[in-house]
Design a protein that fits this description.
Length: 412
C-alpha cells in the first residue's frame, strides 16, 4: 500500500497510553482528520506505527517527560518523529473543551501552522550528560534549601553565624555554644543530618563531571576561559550539546536567554532584563562565571566596569560579560582555535582543583596517579582549543579544525 501525499500524525502521549490523529493537508485550514486512534496502550506504539503509518509521514508530539523515549522508539521502526515545544502548542488549547482526541488534532495542526518550535533531540552522549547534570542540580538545590532553613531557624533564635566558615563546620559550635531545648536540638540535628546527606550525594556527581571534563578535549578547552571550571564546562556539554544546531553566536545567546527582552508594541515602549526566557539552568552558571570575570584582572572585567560607568547597572554589566562569554564558548565549540603552547600558572591551578575533586578513589579508577594524570591533561590541553576572550575582537569565519580524540581513559 502506498500513499500519494505525506501526512502529519498528531500524537498525544501519556506514560501508559497515547491518542493519535492522522491528518492530511498542507495547512491547518485545509487539514482533514482521516482517523483518530484513542487511548492505545503505549507498549503497542511501535507495532501501531508500523501498521498504521508510513515512512513518508511526520509524527509530532508535545514535549513531555517521555517524549524523547517515544521519538527514539519510533525511529527504530523507521518513522520520522518530531517533538514540539510544549509552551507553543499549549497556546492553541481550547479553553472550553479539551480531551486526548482534541489534543492530538491540535498538536498535528500546530505543526502544519509552522508556529510551534521543534525541540532538538539530544544524542546519547548529550542525553547522558543531561541526566548527570540534572541529578547534580537536584542535590545542589536540596543543599541550598537546607542551608537556608538552618540559617532561618538560627536567625529566629538570635544566633549569628561566621559567614566565612561553612555551615557544616560550625555545627558542633552551634549545638554546644547555645542553650537549646531538647526539641530545638532535635530539630537542628535533623536539619544538619539532612544537609550532610545532601552534600554527600553531591560528591559523586561532582567527581564524575570533573572526570569527564578532564578527559574530553573540547570540554577541557572551555576551562581555558576565565571564570569557567568543570561545572560550567560540563553544563555546556550537557545543555548546548551539538553546536551545529546554532547558525551563529546570536542564536546561542538567544537560546541561553542572555539577550534582553523588549516590547515596543503600541505607543509605549518597554525593555526589560534577561529573566523569563531561555535556559535558566545554564544561564545562571554563566552569570556566576561572568561575576568571577568581573572580579578578576581580565581585560573583559575592565570592559564591564566601563559599561557600568556608562549604564549605571552592575547587573547589566555582568549580563553583558556573560553574553561575551557565551560568544567565546560558541567559537570554541565551532573550532575557532589555535594550539596551546604552554599551560600558564592560573590554568595549572585550575586543573589542580579539578583533579582534587576526583580524589584518590577517582584516580584509582582511572589507574593513574595525580602527577601522571596532571601531565596527561597538560598534553591534552596542547591539542585542544583555546580562544582569547577579547571584547574588541572582530570575528571572521575560520577553517574547519582537525578532529581531536582523547588519549585519556574516559570511564571508570
Amino acid at each position: 500500500m502506498t500513499i500519494s501525499h505525506a501526512r502529519v500524525i498528531g500524537l498525544d502521549a501519556h506514560p501508559d497510553s497515547f491518542t493519535s490523529a492522522i491528518i492530511s493537508g498542507v495547512t491547518p485550514a485545509a487539514a482533514v482528520v482521516e482517523k483518530v486512534y484513542n487511548k492505545v496502550p503505549i507498549r503497542q506504539l511501535a507495532s501501531w506505527a508500523e501498521k498504521h503509518t508510513f515512512k513518508e509521514d511526520t509524527i509530532v508530539l508535545e514535549a513531555s517527560g517521555n517524549s524523547f523515549h517515544i521519538v527514539r522508539a519510533l525511529e527504530k521502526v523507521g518513522r520520522n518523529a518530531k517533538v514540539l515545544e510544549s509552551c507553543q502548542v499549549g497556546k492553541l488549547k481550547d479553553a472550553h473543551a479539551n480531551n486526548d482526541k482534541i489534543s492530538a488534532v491540535r498538536i498535528g495542526k500546530a505543526y502544519l501552522a509552522g508556529t510551534a518550535k521543534i525541540v532538538w533531540l539530544p544524542d546519547p552522549i548529550t542525553q547522558e550528560r543531561r541526566d548527570i547534570f540534572h541529578a547534580y542540580s537536584k542535590t545542589v538545590k536540596r543543599s541550598t534549601q537546607l542551608i537556608n532553613r538552618i540559617k532561618s531557624y538560627l536567625s529566629d533564635n538570635g544566633v549569628r553565624l561566621n559567614s566565612k566558615t561553612s555551615l557544616i563546620k560550625q555545627q558542633k559550635t552551634i549545638l554546644q555554644k547555645h542553650s537549646w531545648s531538647l526539641t530545638q536540638k532535635m530539630i537542628l540535628e535533623g536539619l544538619f543530618a539532612d544537609l550532610i546527606h545532601a552534600q554527600n550525594q553531591k560528591t559523586p556527581w561532582n567527581r564524575l563531571m570533573a572526570q569527564q571534563v578532564l578527559t574530553d578535549p573540547v570540554l577541557l578547552s572551555l576551562t581555558r576561559l576565565t571564570g569557567i571550571r568543570d561545572i560550567v564546562a560540563y553544563s555546556v556539554g550537557a545543555i548546548i550539546g551539538d553546536i551545529t544546531r546554532f547558525a551563529n553566536p546570536k542564536k546561542l545567546v538567544s537560546y541561553v536567554g542572555l539577550h534582553p527582552a523588549f516590547d515596543d508594541s503600541g505607543e509605549e515602549k518597554w525593555s526589560g532584563g534577561i529573566k523569563g526566557h531561555g535556559r535558566r539552568d545554564i544561564r545562571s552558571l554563566l552569570i556566576e562565571a561572568a561575576q568571577s570575570i568581573y572580579n578578576s584582572k581580565h581585560s573583559l572585567a575592565a570592559w564591564g566596569k566601563k559599561l557600568l560607568a556608562r549604564k549605571g547597572s552592575k547587573t547589566l554589566a555582568i549580563a553583558a560579560i556573560a553574553r561575551k562569554l557565551t560568544v567565546a564558548i560558541y567559537y570554541i565549540l565551532k573550532g575557532s582555535w589555535s594550539p596551546v603552547e604552554e599551560v600558564d600558572s592560573l590554568m595549572s591551578a585550575k586543573i589542580g582543583k579539578m583533579i582534587t575533586k576526583l580524589g584518590s578513589e577517582g584516580l584509582a579508577a582511572l589507574e593513574t596517579t595525580r602527577k601522571d594524570f596532571r601531565a596527561q591533561i597538560f598534553e591534552l590541553l596542547k591539542v585542544g582549543r583555546t580562544y582569547r576572550l577579547d571584547p574588541d575582537k572582530k570575528y571572521t569565519k575560520s577553517p574547519e579544525p582537525p578532529a581531536i580524540s582523547s588519549p585519556l581513559p574516559v570511564n571508570a
